[in-house]
Amino acid sequence: MPRITAVETHDVRFPTSAELAGSDAMHPDGDYSAAYLTLRTDHPDGHSGAGFTFTIGRGNDICVAAIEAMGATLVGLDLDEAFADMGAFARRFTHDSQFRWLGPEKGVVHLAAGALINAMWDLYARVEGKPLWKLLADLSPEQIVSLVDWRYLTDALTPDEALDMLRAKASGRAEREADLRATGFPAYTTSPGWLGYDDEKMIALATEAVAAGFTMIKLKVGGRIEDDIRRFALAREKLGDGIRLASDANQKWDVNEAIDWMTRLKPYDPYWIEEPTAPDDILGHAAIRKAVAPIKVATGEHAHNRILFKQLLQAGSLDVLQIDAARVAGVNENIAILLLAAKFGVPVCPHAGGVGLCELVQHLSMFDYIAVSGSKSDRAIESVPHLHEHFTDPISYGPSYTAPTAPGFSARMYPESLRDYAYPDGAIWQS
Q1: Labelling 281: which of 319, 383, 407, 422 has CA 20 to 30 A away?
Q2: Residues carrying CATH 3.20.20.120, the chain
Q3: Is the pLDDT of residue 110 over 90?
Q4: What pLDDT was estimated at residue 424?
Q5: Where exactly does CATH 3.30.390.10 map onto the chain?
Q6: Please, which residues have CB within 8 angstroms of residue 104's CB and are 6 or more apart in sequence?
């Protein structure tokens, strides 16, 4: 029987701070990075699995160390046993009594768990010869429900309720899959909006994005209010009223500051304000949402687990829910969050960008469309043009995501990229 033989790790960092790509009010000089792993096996067809978690530089080595510590428990694991119960496989990390003490279910150990769980899903999809979105969409409602860790969720959503939701959407799966293959999934772009870009670069990139077909652009905010007013006014003047302009404060403000700031930006019709305050502040988000309406509140990229998402939804704290493929405990926990969002009728617009996050999260949105929410309405995946060339199955940057056809989770990086961008000894960092 095929087994896992080794877990290889890599500390991969890209010097994006040099051009201020990714710059925002709280993270002005990030170097986009991946704590990357490969699950080696003795499968007769030579299959392996790739996974990673995303950071912005310092601390990436800590994530690598956590992946190594947790991944050591997988050596010798029977693949058939793991694939037969992927819910139990995920819980071997999130329920581990000793690793769990370091969270529980949050922080570096949760990031590492997500990277390992995602790598196993990549391996499973490769063995099955399917892209991950298709592997998930082909599961029965009962199989999907079995993937979720229901502990702490049943006051908001029970397994039986989830089964009813999934069964109600089952009859339209084939039609939605055909639509997905034909038209893809909507995207919006953040590329013009990095806070370190000057007005000229912002407008040039935004104009190019609109010409390419994007109908929503996100601008970073939270530096100086005068700068944000100028940038929003200029973008609205140049792009017109038909383009949605979202804003993203990256957790910069206190609650009252967020309300005051967004009140001053209201004349320029921001579509949403993303992460206006601390990601754990459930009641703060609710107060901001009430005060700044009709501007929507979007959050979730730094929400650390399904329980926090549950409470954000229960408290009416958000209008748009933003999952991250590598922040929580991988595919399984994101499926739980997608089910919660569907229960509360809140659209999901995933966080992406970074290193490979676009490649990963597209699969989750496509699965959500086919099997869970059944809708593309007011849903779009964040998209940026950076760093896709390092992946063997990259997205094509544009106003829609094309459904992947290659087997796996689109997580695999080229060996040359792992070598040249290895920190601190890779050729790029040595030069």
Answers
A1: 383
A2: 166-417
A3: yes
A4: 97
A5: 4-138
A6: none
**Bond into 104 cis (ω within 30):** yes
Active site residues: 220, 351
Q: Amino acid letter at 38?
A: T
The span from the CA of 424 to the CA of 401, in Å, is: 34
Q: Are strands 33-41 and 296-299 parallel, antiparallel or unpaired?
A: unpaired
Pairwise CA distance, residues 66 & 71, whole Å: 8
CATH number of 166-417: 3.20.20.120
**What DSSP string describes 370-382?**
IIIS---TT--EE
Alpha carbon distance, N-terminus to C-terminus of the chain: 45
Report d(CA 135, CA 114) in Å as an integer.
Answer: 18
Closest CA to 111 of 8, 37, 13: 37
Edge-to-edge order in the sheet of strand 33-41: 4-13, 33-41, 49-55
**112 phi and psi, to 5 degrees?**
-65, -45
Q: How many residues does the chain have?
A: 431
Taking only the tens place, the pLDDT of each residue in 331-356 is 999 999 999 999 999 999 999 988 99
Superfamily of domain 4-138: Enolase-like, N-terminal domain (3.30.390.10)
pLDDT of residue 331: 98
